[in-house]
From TrEMBL:
Name of the protein: ATPase
Family recorded in the similarity comment: Belongs to the AHA1 family.
Pfam families: AHSA1 (PF08327)
Record InterPro entries: ASHA1/2-like_C, START-like_dom_sf
Record-annotated Activator of Hsp90 ATPase homologue 1/2-like C-terminal domain positions: 11-129
Database matches in CDD domains: SRPBCC_CalC_Aha1-like
Source domain of life: Bacteria
Length: 142
């Protein structure tokens, strides 16, 4: 199995990063404005990206200011059954955010594309948390 793993340093406390990752308003700025999101264990949240098949993620862990994990229940077939986690580590005046997208069946062109886009997600998260505006899907030029 293949995994994607990135780390980003955000110059705000973990509580602010956690809030961005666990609210519809935060994820709308960071990832996509076309979403339905509720931060509850077992909630299945939906994220939409243009004409693509909606991505449905079930929340499997929520530890305030520390961790959130999702299990993909519907999306592009390569995503179904994979897991995404966000781990937040307090580093004093900044937060280390480790994003992992695990349990890919193989490394494919789509895996590589997603690897790049998760890095953009973390850049968007950093910009949103530090400056108030992320780079959500609808604002990006592909």
């Amino acid at each position: 199995m293949a995994n994607i793993e990135h780390v980003q340093y955000v110059n705000v406390p973990p509580a602010l990063v956690y809030q961005a990752l666990t609210t519809a308003s935060g994820l709308a700025e960071v990832w996509t404005q076309d979403l339905q999101f509720s931060a509850e264990i077992d909630a299945v949240n939906e994220f939409r990206f243009g004409d693509e098949r909606p991505t449905k993620m079930k929340i499997t862990a929520l530890i305030p200011d520390t961790r959130m994990t999702w299990h993909c229940v519907d999306s592009d077939p390569e995503w179904i059954g994979t897991n995404v986690s966000f781990e937040l580590n307090d580093m004093g005046n900044k937060t280390a955010v480790t994003l992992r997208h695990t349990d890919w069946r193989e490394v494919t062109e789509f895996y590589r594309f997603c690897n790049y886009n998760w890095a953009i997600f973390l850049l968007s998260l950093k910009q949103y948390c530090e400056g108030g505006a992320g780079i959500h899907y609808q604002a990006r030029k592909f």
